[in-house]
Design brief:
alpha/beta; 7-stranded parallel β-sheet; 8 helices; 7 strands; about 45% helix; globular; binds nicotinamide-adenine-dinucleotide; oxidoreductase activity, acting on the CH-OH group of donors, NAD or NADP as acceptor; oxidoreductase; 3-oxoacyl-ACP reductase; NAD(P)-bd_dom_sf; SDR_fam
Length: about 260
C-alpha cells in the first residue's frame, strides 16, 4: 500500500476460490490475490457483501453456505467452469464463539454449530477442491485456523479453539497425503485481527481486548491486509517448499511468555 511497495504479480492466470470473501480477512485477501493477477471467485453466504467484494476485484460471486455440501461443490465447479482451473483454495469462512464459550456454559447445539461452520466447512471445501488440483497436478490450499489452535486461551472459547485445532490437524494431514501430487496444504494461524468478527467479540467485553493486547509483542492487533499478504505468499510459488505447516502470523504471541 505504500508508494515504494514492491508490485507482486505472482498469481497471473491462476484461479482462487475464497470463502468468507465478503468481509475481514477474506475481503482483504480477495483484493490482494486479484492485485497479484489471480481470477478471484468470491464465496459467501452474505449475498450483498459477497457480490460487492467480487465487483470490487473484477471477479465473480457465488452464493455459498460453506456448511452445505451441494453449495460448496457448486462454488468450486463454477470457478472451474468460468476460468478453467482451481489453483488456489482459501478456505476461510468462520464464525466467532458463542457469548460464553466456557465448557461449563456452551450447549451442545452451539458447539455443533461452531464445528459445522469452522471445521466441517473446511472438510467440504478441501474435498471439493482436491480433485481439480489432482487433475492439474498442482494446487495450493490455505485453511484459516487461528493461533488458538496452538495455545490454550485463558478466556474460554472452547468450541472455537477445538474447531481451529481440527482445521490445523486436517490441513497437516492433507498436506502430507497430497504433496506428491503437487498439492500443498497449509493452515494459516492468524493472531487477533482487526476485523468485524473481533470488533464484535470485544464490543461485548472491552476488558478482554485490553488483556489480549498485553500479550502481543507487537503491541497491536493485525490489520487484515497483513494476513492477506501471508495468504498471497502461501498461494504463490514463492512458498513452493512450505507445506503441512501451521503458518503463524501472530505478532509474536506464540513466542511470548
Ligand atoms: P468476518 O466476520 O469479518 O468475515 C467472515 C465472513 O465469512 C463473512 O463475510 C461471513 O458472511 C462469512 N460466513 C460466515 N458464515 C458463513 C457460512 N456458513 N458460509 C459462507 N460464508 C460464511 O471474519 P474474519 O475475522 O475475517 O474471519 C475470517 C476467518 O479468520 C474465520 O475463520 C476466523 O475464525 C478466522 N480468524 C479470525 C481472527 C480475527 O481476529 N479476526 C483471528 C484468527 C482467525
Amino acid at each position: 500500500s505504500s508508494a515504494d511497495a514492491v508490485v507482486c504479480r505472482r498469481l497471473v492466470g491462476r484461479t482462487a476460490v475464497i470463502t468468507g470473501a465478503g468481509s475481514g480477512i477474506g475481503l482483504a485477501t480477495a483484493r490482494r490475490l486479484a492485485s497479484e493477477g489471480a481470477h478471484v471467485v468470491c464465496g459467501d453466504v452474505d449475498e450483498t457483501r459477497g457480490r460487492a467484494a467480487a465487483e470490487g476485484v473484477g471477479g465473480i460471486f457465488v452464493k455459498a453456505d460453506v456448511t452445505d455440501p451441494e453449495q460448496v461443490d457448486a462454488l468450486f465447479e463454477t470457478a472451474y467452469d468460468t476460468y478453467g482451473s482451481v489453483d488456489i483454495a482459501f478456505n476461510n469462512a468462520g464464525i466467532s464463539p458463542p457469548d460464553d464459550d466456557s465448557i461449563l456454559e456452551t450447549g451442545l447445539e452451539a458447539w455443533k454449530r461452531v464445528q459445522e461452520v469452522n471445521l466441517t466447512s473446511v472438510y467440504l471445501c478441501c474435498k471439493a477442491a482436491i480433485p481439480y488440483m489432482r487433475r492439474q497436478g498442482k494446487g495450493s490450499i490455505i485453511n484459516t485456523a487461528s493461533f488458538v489452535a496452538r495455545m490454550g486461551a485463558a478466556t474460554s472459547q472452547i468450541s472455537y479453539t477445538a474447531s481451529k485445532g481440527g482445521v490445523l490437524a486436517m490441513s497437516r494431514e492433507l498436506g502430507v497425503q497430497f504433496a506428491r501430487e503437487g498439492i500443498r496444504v497449509n493452515a494459516l494461524c492468524p493472531g487477533p485481527v482487526n476485523t468485524p468478527l473481533l470488533q464484535e467479540l470485544f464490543a461485548k467485553d472491552p476488558e478482554r481486548a485490553a488483556r489480549r493486547l498485553v500479550h502481543i509483542p507487537l503491541g497491536r492487533f493485525a490489520e487484515a491486509d497483513e494476513i492477506a499478504a501471508a495468504v498471497a505468499f502461501l498461494a504463490s510459488d514463492d512458498s513452493s517448499f512450505v507445506n503441512a505447516t501451521d503458518f503463524l502470523v501472530d505478532g509474536g504471541i506464540s513466542g511470548a511468555y
